[in-house]
Write the structure tokens for this entry.
Amino acid sequence: MKAKHFKGIMMVLAGATLWGLSGSAAQYLFEQGAVGAGALVSVRLLASGVILLLYVAVKNSSSHVFRIWKKKSSASSILIFSIFGMLAVQYTFFSSIEGGNAAAAAVLQYLAPFFVLIYIYIKKEASPKLKDVMLAFAALAGVFLLLTGGRPDSLYVPLPSVIWGVLSGAALAFYTVYARALIQAFGALTVTGWGMLIGGLGISVVFPPFQFDPSAIGIGEGMAVLFVVLCGTALAFALYIGSLSYLSPKVTSCLSCAEPLAAVLSSAVWLDVPFNAVQGAGTIMIIMTVIWLSLSREGKTKTDITDFESPF
């Protein structure tokens, strides 16, 4: 294996793992009563947005950062992406964690490529292929096992968490499709940085940042907040985007399965979240169907789900 290829693999695995661990860190904060989902999202988006834009400015120039605002079309597009893409996917994801756990939220969000696939078929006015239908049913079977542990009369994950998780997957599908043109024109870090900053300003109107409970904030909680903002967002995304210099989007999208796996393992080990063998089988089914779907659509349209990028 070439050194650069290996470096790319390590970068994308590290980035995806940090995304998954940040979900567990957020769950820890919610369980301690230190902060709610809205306030944490506002802090995360504002801080990470500033960090990413400063990084782009230092690496390139300040004019490079503000290019996106020179045309009305791109300015309106980044506003739409920021609110209905970045903010929507962040808030729904963390609300799913707050109502349930990081493991289930991460796995449910990983269904996003199937929402993109539905969009592609609707846009083309085409009938779904049998293979895609079978993969979708396999993924749904995996969701059933994950949420019920194989028992139809029980629900291991609270219903509100399930709803938020599915909405998170749908929001991520919109994020993936809508952001493509912006990213191609202005770069992933610039688009993501503005998306986070604007999204953070938007949610701050409803959930002002730093609405933390001082009595519930200790060293551990403070470190968890810093991890979510710095390592689980800014650093993770920089690693993921950097890996694209050495790997194809197809490879990075498949390796990003480390995100839900990291969330599942860290939730079970660190937070003692019950996770039985049946739920584990369901998780593996979901991840494998998404990878199979990605690999089977080589060379498809510009809205190909294999260019799937996580916003975390």
Confidence is low (pLDDT under 50) at residues 301-306. The chain has one domain: 3-307. The CA atoms of residues 205 and 301 lie 38 Å apart. The radius of gyration is 19 Å.
